[in-house]
Amino acid sequence: MQCPECDTELPPENRFCEECGTPLPNTAEMDAPEGSADNGCPRCGASVESIDADGYCAECGFRRGRASRNHFEITISPHFAGVCDRGLRHSRNEDFFCLASSESGMSVMVVCDGVSSSRRAEEASQIAAECACRVLLAGSPVDAALIQSQAAVLGIDLATAGGQDDPATTMVVAVVEGRRATIGWVGDSRAYWISPGNNLQLTRDHSWVNEMAPSDAKPNSAQMHAITRWLGHGAPDDEPCVLDFEIPGPGALLLCTDGLWNYAPETDSLAALVEEALVEEARGEAIQTARELVNFARAQGGVDNITAVLLQFPATTVIEAAAETREVENL
Amino acid sequence: MQFKAEVFQNAYLSQGAREVHAIMTITAEEDGSGGMNTGGDKLFGIICDTSGSMEGAKIHAAKQAMARIVELLPLDAYFFVIAGSDHAVTVAPCTRATIENKQSALAAIRSIRAGGGTYISTWLSQALAQFDRMPGAIRQGLLLTDGQNEQVDEPRLAAMLNACEGHFQCECRGVGADWVISELQKISGKLLGSTDIIADAAGIESDFQGILERALSKDVTDVALRLWTPVGARVLFCKQVSPQLVDLTQRAHAVKPQTSDYPTGAWGRSESRDYHFAIEVKPGGVGDEMLAGRASLIITQNRVESKATEARILAIWTDDEAKSTRIERHVAHYTGQAELAESIHQGLEARERGDDDVATRLLGKAVRLAHESGNEATAKLLRTVVDVDNAREGTVRLKSTVAREDAMALETRSTKTARISRP
């Protein structure tokens, strides 16, 4: 890449020219502060008036938006939390996730992985996740959420549309009410059930390796891991993949992107990490476990963006939930 | 006239790093818009030592040089002349440089006689009174002396400098080799000027003319460099690094809790200066980005402030060492120039106290740094003090005899930096 001002040759991931300091074009897309709810500076608590047009806080100087887009965490409760991280190699974080719980006790988790080869992938993942979360909280079923998210990604305003590099993202969602979980997905972001002696990969990747006949698959070819389904322009018009899952007992529901599972492709090895984190570091807190998983992927090289979201069912809550379910049934 | 600012820095820091360095280049350009109130009155004040030690060739040359300056002054400029010894005598009070006023000033200059001691505080006190008659003008002083200030005058001089700060700018010149560099630098530093040696009295006239020319080229005065830093940040230093080194760190004047002004004095058309900021900030995590500083140029005219230009200093934390360990070219260059000046200063000090080993090492290092950075002017001055065996490696031998004037010229001029070459 060349600086438009002084023509210095620069590494492509640079945001500013090292010679003359000119902001580089690809940064413009990242500058928009996330979300519409504006609460000022997340670092020092300065009011929204202190944030300048580029997102810098006039008190502490930290830039809002970009920093939190590169690494952000959400904690809904000690049992329900997630972490999203840029990783070590990518210059942007194109993963995104949303968590929410309704007053009625419904938990919603959405994880998206913007397709790196597409334009504005970080926008696609965020718009899709926010849309799905909103729709699910409003009580719509999972398949409807997937369909509406697809429309939301198509709605990204583009000067030119219809190209191969239009915004695209994967998505995996889980809605949990009591012991009933409904999982939906598009692409290769995954949902797992982690429980000692009973680890399950709940989703099945929409990828070449899964959809081609075994004889056609060329081992280790780049195509094998290419996704065959996504949200965005040119997505195949297939029925959404949705399944119901009954929470069998104590354990954790884990949603993650390939930035994590690529380093632990076997379900049991991933599960071992979760259990290790639960026992050693986390004293049972979901946010600690999620951080441990992200740190694990970074320690392994962090070549992709990493997202890990956990909803834990400790022994006590499962019993409570079961009791609630019975009460509901008794009514 | 308009100002342009440009910042050069490597904004990338490793995790936990706190020190942000940036070079800001400020250029004043003629844009024809005349938006800024330029071309105002210009007041030039001459303050000349007429103490007993000036007797002879020095006072003769100084009088000639002053007369020449008066003749050269444009008719719309203003001037005054002060003769200083035990006290100050106003040879010509603040007046417009009309033909008649020049004639009477020239006659008064001719009648100057040397005699008495050196009480610089009284000279500055009189100069301040003259400059304060025209507070809106571009106010440039020129002080010439050949000796040391009287010991008893020191406390009064320090107090007088504080009173003069911001009221006028002053260039200081020492003629001969019997004056004290640090003493004049204290005055020129406070009054935003430089100190230089005029080894031979015959050189006074051309030196004075150079100062007058530069003074007349100024278009706007009382310009301040305003630096905003985030809460919790600390300015480690703020230095002018080109055309010469001037440490402004202690000159900070707090405007608001996070904002300080540093004086830069008067600016002329097509003048360009570089400033080096070092700011210590709260460390961020990988991926965090911070505005570590916002530097702007503030012009005060008729008590109204206006912002001329602004530039940002950023910090971006990364775990990519290839990015964070790179030192930006401008920062590296001027860090080297500051090191060069410091090596010369300390090397000459060591030489003075007879520590030849330290002097040889430091002056050798200076020769190497001057060679590497292409600072030919300083390299030439160094060769008056040392014999250079290998400039690239910095191997030198101290000369056995060095003229005092040559060592003083090296010391005073070592703060002149080389501009960075185009890549």
Structure characterization notes:
The complex is a heterodimer of chains A (331) and B (423). Chain A contains eight helices and 13 strands. Chain A is 27% helix and 22% strand. Chain A is globular, with a radius of gyration of 21 Å. Residues 25-38 of chain A have low confidence and may be disordered. Chain A folds into two domains: 12-64, no CATH class; 69-330, PPM-type phosphatase domain (Phosphatase 2c, domain 1, 4-Layer Sandwich). The radius of gyration of chain B is 23 Å and the shape is globular. Helix content of chain B is 32%, strand content 35%. Chain B folds into three domains: 2-30 and 221-319, Immunoglobulin-like (Sandwich), CATH 2.60.40.3670; 42-216, von Willebrand factor, type A domain (Rossmann fold, 3-Layer(aba) Sandwich), CATH 3.40.50.410; 330-413, Up-down Bundle (Four Helix Bundle (Hemerythrin (Met), subunit A)), CATH 1.20.120.1690. The longest helix of chain B has 24 residues, at 329-352. The two termini of chain B are 28 Å apart. Chain B has 423 residues and is an alpha/beta fold. The model of chain B has no long low-confidence stretch (mean pLDDT 94). The chains are: A alpha+beta (331), B alpha/beta (423). Chain A binds chain B through residues 8, 11, 15-16, 18-21, 44, 52, 56-57, 59-63, 66-67, 70-71, 86, 88, 93, and chain B through 6-11, 229-233, 258, 281-282, 284-292, 311, 314-316, 319, 323, 326, 328-329, 423.
What's the overall average pLDDT of chain A, rounded? Answer: 81
Strand order across the largest sheet of chain B: 2-17-16-10-14-13
Judging by the overall fold, what is the CATH architecture of the largest domain in chain A?
A: 4-Layer Sandwich
| CATH-assigned homologous superfamily of the largest domain in chain A | PPM-type phosphatase domain
Alpha carbon gyration radius of chain B = 23 Å
Low-confidence stretches of chain A: 25-38
**Structural classification of chain B:** alpha/beta
Total of domains of chain A: 2
Radius of gyration of chain A, in angstroms, nearest whole number? 21 Å
The CATH top-level class label of the largest domain in chain B? Alpha Beta
Classify the beta-strand content of chain B into a percent band: 25-35%
